[in-house]
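Q: For a teaching session next week I want to show students how multiple molecules come together into a single three-dimensional assembly. I've collected the sequence lines for a complex. Could you give me the predicted structure tokens for the whole thing so I can convert them for display?
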Amino acid sequence: MKTMVIQLRTGTMMNMDSNIAVKLAQAALDKGYAVRIFGYGEGITLIKKGQDPKRFPNVGNETKEMLPKGLEVVVCETCCKARGVARGEEIEGTKIGSLTNDLSRFVAEGDRMVTIAR
Amino acid sequence: MKTMVIQLRTGTMMNMDSNIAVKLAQAALDKGYAVRIFGYGEGITLIKKGQDPKRFPNVGNETKEMLPKGLEVVVCETCCKARGVARGEEIEGTKIGSLTNDLSRFVAEGDRMVTIAR
Amino acid sequence: MKSKLFITLKSPHEFGGLELVRASAKGAKSALLLFEDAVIFAANAKKGKELLSAVQEIYIMKDDWEARGLPLAVPEFKIVDYPQAVELIMERYEQTITV
Amino acid sequence: MKSKLFITLKSPHEFGGLELVRASAKGAKSALLLFEDAVIFAANAKKGKELLSAVQEIYIMKDDWEARGLPLAVPEFKIVDYPQAVELIMERYEQTITV
Amino acid sequence: MAESLLILVTKPPYGFEEAFAGLRAGLGMLASGLVPVSNALLVGEGTLNAVAAQRPEAVRMPSNMEAINDMLDFEAKVYVVKEDLLHLVGDVPLMEGVEVIDWERARKVIDEHDMVTTF
Amino acid sequence: MAESLLILVTKPPYGFEEAFAGLRAGLGMLASGLVPVSNALLVGEGTLNAVAAQRPEAVRMPSNMEAINDMLDFEAKVYVVKEDLLHLVGDVPLMEGVEVIDWERARKVIDEHDMVTTF
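A: Of course. Below is the structure for the complete assembly, covering every listed component.
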């Protein structure tokens, strides 16, 4: 089973970039690939609990629904701290982690990296 | 006393845009102008409590320090909800408000608008 | 040389990566996959052909394209869905490079 | 016509607003105020002159310019600090337009 | 003391929330009763927000056409610069109710407003 | 199963956190011991990150020069494409330790890595 690593670097709502990450992840999981998402910089907002967009897709909920299918989601702790997002504010099943422990593992185990950034 | 309205639309850390807003506000206050900041879209992150950037300027703290000098800061509630930022997570003295009640008042009372966006 | 799939999400107005794509694609099997506002390239014959001068194949995302309601001006562009995009990324090209 | 101060934060690579500035500045007193990565325009004579063809004055922020450590290639650009930028926005021009 | 705000839309629909957010801001001004005049001027890739054949449901995004119609319902003007549209995608059909203008007129529109904000 | 990650830096220093974040990511790979090879390739406006005369303290930003030096300390390569720098700002002095190359060589550098990520 090959692994797709998605590195997401833009915020959940400023544009559709996080949607693209979610839809790629869904399609890859459906085809039987393993998928890892690493949220870096503004991309950490993907795992913020309590997202409630009135008219836009709820990427937080959609990410959560993919977790039982084997999706692993980690975001950068330094980036979270910088933005005042504390441990406990993340969606259950996602993790606040680091470049050194987590992105490196994703890269080492990964076959392709898709960078979602502007 | 003329009023400068700053509309901030980018996140606190993804780039230096929020710094620009803060530095403009400081200089305008020092010169005796009234200053209003409206955080819209990703710009709502300016007022998130607990920001702790390791190496970047802490724009949350700097905003807080300007409040006693007459700075008024309001961010869009719909945008906060979308991103899972709840009432109570804002820095004391700033407000989660709306386009209709607050931005419109800023515009009506304002002399110049500076849009900080990409 | 490793085959390369370039990815962009930027509109023609925003996109400044053509020279980077051209320089890094030279001599390799290469394609460009367009998401979001980048699909607007398909509605402008001149800008679309410019992209085609840098890589061999250009793919655009079906849903992004349909949302914008524009006429297709570059028939060489291939419209793909998400499962096909995954296939391109995971199997058909060896490296993906966002531009 | 109202005098216009255009503002941009975009680097030369990112910036695509020249035609918008030119079209909306025509016939008015106009200037461009460059923040952040936009100050890189001052290090490239060709790109700097292009901007000067669209507006009468160009101002660049001192701190942003100093941070980048580049040689000034367009001596016509005026280096300003934050108090001066506030003066431009509040007193010297009637409208500010971000591009 | 501004009595009018022009929403200058430069971003195309759906990729960014900008165009939608801009039209919403214009609507907010009109609904407030505090800012009597707020209109929208669509330029560059922003002109694509007025394309009649848009299908936002394909990407599950809110409809920018609806946002334009909301502004029109409040008797705001939504101007589209024809030259910019033609240059970008040719002569595609636009939504009913928008006002197609040239840059000569667009300059006057900008001048008629106290403040301009870009989306 | 990637053994190497190339950090492709396209963004200039200070305006965006991107270039800094990219160099940090490269360092993270090297520090982990899990990804043996991680180098940086500076292209386009990204080449400005290697300019010797930078003064990041003027804008209170973290130093991208320091971030480059950190990568060099881990024996990573930091490549700068000369043509792109010349085209942009002329022949300005660069930091010690970076390797100045042309696009011919840059293509080989890209090819030598399993994965590429853009900042």
